UniProtKB/TrEMBL annotation:
It comes from the Bacteria. This is SsuA/THI5-like domain-containing protein. Residues 1-33 form the signal peptide. Belongs to the bacterial solute-binding protein SsuA/TauA family. Keywords: Signal. It is found in: Periplasm. It comes from Georgenia halophila. Residues 71-273 form the SsuA/THI5-like domain. PROSITE patterns: TAT. Pfam families: NMT1. The lineage of its organism: Bacteria, Bacillati, Actinomycetota, Actinomycetes, Micrococcales.
């Protein structure tokens, strides 16, 4: 297995998957040691004096995707403001980058798939998952027409972010279904906004795409098709988390609850008010409204990607941890106490305040 960037340099290098996963955790631990304040931020939800708490939030893709558009909905509809929060968003390369940024104190809150958060916690970072965005997998692997089975991917160039990040983990999961490993393919490091163009131009043979990206790709090249729908094969796998340094929640319980309330309100609005949210999501993602409207059907009706209530199901997170061990995406020898990693207090308090509604 090798990695080749579509942009940013022509060199190829061999990557050993296990070592890379361990290195990710080590990087996060190093960042933790370098951080003197544990990533603490402002005061409670309104600072305790009627003011506004500022939260620096990092998202895991260079361009915001539908699954992270709950942030935009909460901001545009005033949910953060009503919770006494001002949320400044930064788009990073991957969940691994987000995790390192939160551990290092550059951000109060991060949004990332669960894998890099678990690995950083296993490496010693004192993190806490306290809410979620899309907690169900809603992605699919898209390939050209000449690829008709997973086995056909042998020796091909597959697009990923980086080792241990979400798209690489999903790719590894697809390969495993055919008894293959990353050693049987070539990884190509690809930026978020280059997956569709990379497929169309045949710079990569596969990409893990969100619904809006898959729709866009097929419009540009009808020969592209889905070979695996990850939700269909892994319905119990846990996806997206909002997390922070554990000390931040202790120091800012009102802000943590306020953030959870705003996100929960956004999720409910995304289900209930299609006409309002589609334009917001289209502007946030930079994708045509017609495509986002079609993707809304996938996200909100077919998969029901977002939780309406707490959304931190213990059995599904435990299952995901076990799958990480099987896929060897968990740092070797890591022991993870999920009761210490997942702090449900902010989201449970938020749901109690808002009132529980019918779940999916």
């Amino acid at each position: 297995m090798s990695t080749t960037p579509i942009t940013g340099g022509p060199t190829r290098r061999t990557v050993l998957a296990r070592c890379a996963v361990a290195a990710t955790a080590a990087l996060a631990l190093g960042a933790l040691a370098a951080c003197s304040d544990g990533g603490g931020g402002g005061g409670g939800g309104d600072g305790g004096d009627g003011g506004t708490t500022e939260i620096r939030l990092a998202l895991p893709t260079g361009v915001t995707s539908f699954v992270n558009s709950d942030i935009a909905v909460a901001r545009e509809l005033g949910y953060f403001e009503e919770a006494g929060l001002s949320v400044e968003t930064s788009n990073l390369r991957s969940g691994t980058s987000v995790t390192n940024g939160v551990v290092g104190g550059d951000f109060e809150v991060g949004g990332a798939s669960i894998e890099p958060v678990i690995n950083a916690f296993a490496g010693g970072a004192e993190l806490a998952i306290f809410a979620s965005y899309a907690d169900r997998l809603e992605v699919e692997m898209v390939v050209p027409e000449e690829i008709q089975s997973v086995e056909d991917l042998a020796g091909q160039d597959l697009g990923i972010q980086e080792i241990g990040a979400f798209r690489e983990v999903m790719t590894r999961m697809v390969l495993e279904s055919a008894g293959m490993t990353p050693d049987d393919v070539n990884y190509v490091s690809t930026s978020t906004d280059a997956y569709v163009s990379g497929l169309v131009q045949r710079q990569i043979t596969s990409a893990i795409l969100h619904p809006e990206q898959a729709i866009q790709a097929r419009q540009l090249d009808p020969a592209l098709h889905s070979i695996v729908n990850l939700y269909e094969v892994e319905p119990d796998y846990y996806y997206g988390t909002y997390f922070t340094n554990a000390s931040w929640i202790e120091e800012n319980p009102e802000a943590a609850q306020g953030f959870a309330e705003a996100i929960t309100r956004a999720h409910r609005t995304m289900y209930e008010d299609r006409e309002t949210v589609v334009p917001i999501i289209a502007e946030t993602t930079g994708i045509e409204e017609s495509i986002i409207d079609e993707a809304w059907t996938v996200h909100m009706e077919e998969v029901q990607s977002f939780p309406r209530n707490v959304g931190l199901a213990e059995d599904r997170i435990q299952y995901t941890l076990e799958r990480m061990e099987e896929l060897e995406t968990l740092a070797p020898g890591a022991e993870v106490d999920l009761s210490q990693l997942v702090n449900r207090e902010p989201i449970e308090a938020a749901v109690e305040e808002l009132g529980e509604v019918e779940e999916r």
